[in-house]
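Hello support,

Our group uses your service weekly, and this is the first time we've seen a run hang past the timeout. The protein is Alpha-1,3/1,6-mannosyltransferase ALG2. I'm not sure whether the cause is the sequence or the server load. Input pasted verbatim:
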Amino acid sequence: MVNVVFLHPDLGIGGAERAVIDAALALQSRNHQASLKVEFVTAHHDDNHCFKETTDGSLKVTVAGDWLPRSVCGRMYALCAYLRMVYAALYLVFFSGISFDLVFCDQISACIPVLRLQRKASVLFYCHFPDLLLTQRQTLLKRLYRKPLDWLEEWTTGLAHCVLVNSKFTAGVFHRTFTSLGYMEPDVLYPIPDFTQFDGEVIAPTDDLIPAKDAIVFLSINRYERKKNLPLALDAMACLLEKESEQNIHLVMAGGYDDRVIENREHYLELKERARSLGIEGHVTFKRSFSGEEKKTLLSSAECLLYTPDQEHFGIVPIEAMYMQCPVVAVRSGGPLETVVDGQTGFLCDPDAVSFCSAMEKFVSNRDLSKKFGRAGHERVISRFSFQAFTHKLNGIVMNLCA
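Update from on-call engineer: The timeout came from a worker crash unrelated to the input. Re-ran successfully.
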C-alpha cells in the first residue's frame, strides 16, 4: 500500500484547489483505492465553501492550524500563510499518526524542510507560480519584509525530491526566477480536470443566474481578485454596448468568493461600482461562488468565455470552457498561448477593452461562430488535454518517487 498525503494551505474554491483535488482523484482512479491511499491535510476547510469531493466522502480531509491568524492587522498575509503551512506539516509529521510515503505539497514550499524530517518519505512540490512574483514591492518596508521570505521560498523549493509546474510558461518563469536552482528541471504536468463532472444533463438557467431572457451571454469566471484583471471584462462590455446598442447582450461575472478574504469583499464592490459608473449595471450579473451544475449551465449558455488575467500561468477555466464547446477570448500571454488556438477555438487579444470588444463583436455579428469554435475547442481538449494522459503521467511520477 502506497500512502500519499496532499498538503494544501486552504481547500476553498479556486483553480489551485481544483488542480490538487483532480490530482488526488486521478491517483485514486488509477489504483482503484487498492494499492494506493490518498488523503488531505490542510490549514483550512469550510464545508460550505469547498469542492464537493472534499465533503461527500470521496477524499478524507484533516484540518490542522486553522486557529492560527491569516494576517496581522490586515498585513503579513504571506508570513502567516507560511506559518500555517509549517504548522500543518509539523502536525502531519509528528502528531497526526498518518502514515505516508509521499507528500504532494503545493503553493507554499516553506514547509518542505519539516517534511524532509520524515526521511523515508518523498516530497513532490507542485509550483503553480513563484510566490515572490505575486506581490508588489513598492515600499522599502515591503521589500525588507519580503526579502527573507523570497530567499526561503527559493531554498525550500530546492529541497523537494521532484518539482512539477503547470505549464511550459511557468517552467520558463521558474528558471528565470530561481537562479540558484539551475540544476533542477521541473516537469510540466498540465492540471487537467476530470471532465466527467461536465457530462450529463445541463440544467436550464434560473433568473438569478442569467436574468436576461434570449440574450447573447458573455461569461467571465475567475476569483474576485484584483490580479485577475476583471475590470477588463466590464470595460469591453461597455465598449460593445456602445456599438451594438440594439442587441440584447448580457455579461455574467461569476467567480470564487470567500467572505473571510478582505480582497474578495472589496473587489466585488469595486466591480459593481465600475459597472454602475460605466452605465451597464443592467447588463451585468454578479454571481459570487457557484455550484458545479451552475458552472455547466453558464458554460453551456454563453456565447464565449472572457478570460482576462494577463500572464496567467495556466488557467483551468479555458480548458473547461472548450470541453463544454464554449469558445475562449483570452489575453495573448501565459498559459492561454498553450491552450487556446487563435482564430480556431477562440481569440487571443491584447489586454485592453478595444481588443476584447473586437473579438466579442465577431460573435454578435456571426451567431454560427460560437458553435464552430466550440466544436473545434472540444476536439482540441479531447486530443491534447485528456484526463487519462494526466492520470497516467502523474501516477508514473508518484510510483517512481515511492519506489
